[in-house]
Specification:
The protein has 339 residues and is of the alpha/beta class. It has one domain: 3-Layer(aba) Sandwich (Rossmann fold). A seven-stranded parallel sheet has the order 3-2-1-4-5-6-11, sandwiched between helices. A three-stranded mixed sheet has the order 12-9-14. A two-stranded parallel ribbon has the order 7-10. It binds UDP-4-deoxy-4-formamido-beta-L-arabinopyranose (WQD).
Length: 339
Amino acid sequence: MKVLVTGGAGYLGSHTVLELLAAGHEAVVLDDFSNASPRAMSALGMLANREIAWTEGDIRDAGCLDDVLGGGGFDAVMHFAGLKAVGESVEEPLRYYGTNVAGTACLLERMEAHGVRTLVFSSSATVYRVADTEDPAPLGENAPTGAESPYGRTKLIVEELLRDLCAAKPDWRVSVLRYFNAVGAHPSGVIGEDPTGVPRNLLPCIAQVAVGRRELLEVFGNDYPTRDGTCVRDYLHVVDLARAHIRAVEYLERRPGFAVHNLGTGRGHTVFEAIRAFERASGKTIPYRIVGRRPGDAPVTLADPERAREELGWTAEWDLDRMCADLWRWQSTHPEGFE
Ligand code: WQD
């Protein structure tokens, strides 16, 4: 299939482009490079051993979308382009709704106009209601939703828009993929997460301490009701996540309509366990300081990945040690990211 990958120069998008090509599909990238480097495109080309077509553009620019989609022959779109910093979304909700909701609506209108009606949408576990019970069950796709941040609400609203679209237009095929905590990097160490500005997520923060870009890690609370007092998350290797997208778009070829799948391992690790895993992988000591809790953090968030296993034939394969080893190989060879 020929697939347009919006946000394809970014962390998750670039890893997915590689897996699309490895599976024998064609990929064309659309990215505004607001949170990605054009150097990611040359790195992708080198890894894929071929030129990868890309266009710089914004999903809110209908003319740009018409030029790209009009260029022809797309079978599907994988939509990663969007703003994704939870904290920032609280300060700048209009920018988040404008890009994540209005931008996606613009993309869908232009897809409809060009007869492209297959979409894989990058959603997030943030759409689930935060369970503040001590030992919440792993989240299935029918778990109650209720986002706690503007970022999460934009994801939820787009999911409902897509559900309504599929109900109205039976020829649309939509896969919503709810990501748990994607971490790590391609084993080559040639591409990886290159957060613009100060990273907020745990593993990029740990990696920046290990490579000397940050003095120490702040641990946001160790008084949670968990095995070591720090929060538990379902960390997932970014390559496993990318591979799920191939299964999802191939699933849509067989099955029209609307589908939702959680992407996670079903296994959880605490912050301290992640720190120790990264110390093992890097051989570095990660100095840290315990500080106050971060508002909105749930004690435990875990996926129930059973539906993806059954319906997509997908299971995450790589464990936390592998995630840390691959992340360290990227970070240690690219201390300043793509620059
Ligand atoms: C994990 C744990 C922190 C940084 C978020 C989004 C989610 C998805 C992934 C987009 C928490 C602790 C973190 C630090 C710390 N993104 N932590 N010190 O919050 O589970 O998920 O990112 O889709 O939507 O919500 O991930 O990596 O930010 O935090 O102690 O410097 O690490 O408190 O317990 P989170 P995270």
